[in-house]
């Protein structure tokens, strides 16, 4: 990313944070939908990639159905951004009525037991809104991991934004994230990780909608090393301001097997929970990048990702978190 592009990107996000939250909510909603429809009509690489991914999720969908899903998907994606830009200024009392997650007792019981809880989420609906609901409505602080973005000023904006919502944000680089996460869990804390995409060599291969993909090993490794509950969560939007979600059953650590075998089995269980949620609400899955191994172009170990794969803000665990390095 060139210096000029970095400055323009940072300026665009700065404008979003500064401007969108000041708009009347109906205006912000309409603006997000208009931007989504314009991007969708251009049929760019991200939209085409979204349709290709949705074709795996909904294999019996014809071209017209896929176009409908991708249009709804782009609207959902822009709803995420419009909501996220407005979150710091949102009345926190609204989280109690506009976010409803079924099975929250799993989280509350796990926290009350003092054993620590790991929430693993896919890129469904608005994971930042869910995080704000946890910190504001449930009064539970948590720790997450964010990929360092370029420009650095953009990364700093995202960290400051998430910290303003009550989240502790760790950079994935530097080799210390896994150890900090482990310490938070051992002290009975909560961590949340977006964990449906990992293109590193240390990712765990899983069967996902009938083909092989890689997902981070970090959540399973943390659960094994700390005794924390590993709980998949899936989210979706309704045709109202309400966002819904579900806490799935905790993923148990297998009693037998090597660490790698246990990690593989647990990561597959997480992938299965993600697949169930995505299949029910495919239009809310914001996967605009290549995911399945057979869709990836061969790359050398130091070759950058394709320009058609936009880097988006994420809390995916990467690097040392996936390998289990630095565990304290």
Short account of what is shown:
This protein has 328 residues and is of the alpha/beta class. It is built from twelve helices and nine strands. It is globular, with a radius of gyration of 19 Å.
Detailed description of the structure:
The chain has 328 residues and is α/β, with parallel strands linked by helices. The chain is built from twelve helices and nine strands. It has helices at residues 3-19, 25-42, 45-57, 63-86, 95-98, 105-113, 127-136, 152-164, 177-186, 218-226, 259-280, 320-323, and strands at residues 99-102, 117-121, 142-146, 167-171, 190-194, 204-208, 211-215, 229-237, 243-247. The chain has a five-stranded mixed sheet with strand order 1-9-8-2-5, sandwiched between helices. The protein is globular, with a radius of gyration of 19 Å. The two termini are 35 Å apart. Residues 300-328 have low confidence and may be disordered.
């Amino acid at each position: 990313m060139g210096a000029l592009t970095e400055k323009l990107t940072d300026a665009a996000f700065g404008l979003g944070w500064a401007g969108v939250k000041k708009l009347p909510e109906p205006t912000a909603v309409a603006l997000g939908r208009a931007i989504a429809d314009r991007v969708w009509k251009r049929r760019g690489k991200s939209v085409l990639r979204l349709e290709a991914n949705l074709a795996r999720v909904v294999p019996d969908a014809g071209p017209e159905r896929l176009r409908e899903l991708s249009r709804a998907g782009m609207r959902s994606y822009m709803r995420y951004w419009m909501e996220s830009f407005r979150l710091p200024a949102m009345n926190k009392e609204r989280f109690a009525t506009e976010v409803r997650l079924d099975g929250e007792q799993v989280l509350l019981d796990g926290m009350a037991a003092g054993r620590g809880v790991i929430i693993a989420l896919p890129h469904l609906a608005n994971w930042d809104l869910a995080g704000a609901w946890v910190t504001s409505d449930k009064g539970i602080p948590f720790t997450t991991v964010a990929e360092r973005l370029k420009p650095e000023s953009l990364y700093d904006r995202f960290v400051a934004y998430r910290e303003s919502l009550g989240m502790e944000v760790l950079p994935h680089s530097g080799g210390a994230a896994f150890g900090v996460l482990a310490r938070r869990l051992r002290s009975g804390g909560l961590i949340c990780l977006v964990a449906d995409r990992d293109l590193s060599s240390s990712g765990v291969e899983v069967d996902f909608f009938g083909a092989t993909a890689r997902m981070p090993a970090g959540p399973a490794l943390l659960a094994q090393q700390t005794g924390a509950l590993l709980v998949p969560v899936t989210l979706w939007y309704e045709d109202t301001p309400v966002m819904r979600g579900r806490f799935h059953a905790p993923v148990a650590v297998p009693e037998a097997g090597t660490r790698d075998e246990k990690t593989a089995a647990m990561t597959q269980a997480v992938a299965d929970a993600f697949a169930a949620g995505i299949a029910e609400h495919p239009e809310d899955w914001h996967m605009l990048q290549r995911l399945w191994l057979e869709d990836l172009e061969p790359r050398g170990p130091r070759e950058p990702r394709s320009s058609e794969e936009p880097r988006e803000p994420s809390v995916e665990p990467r690097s040392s978190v996936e390998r289990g390095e630095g565990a304290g």
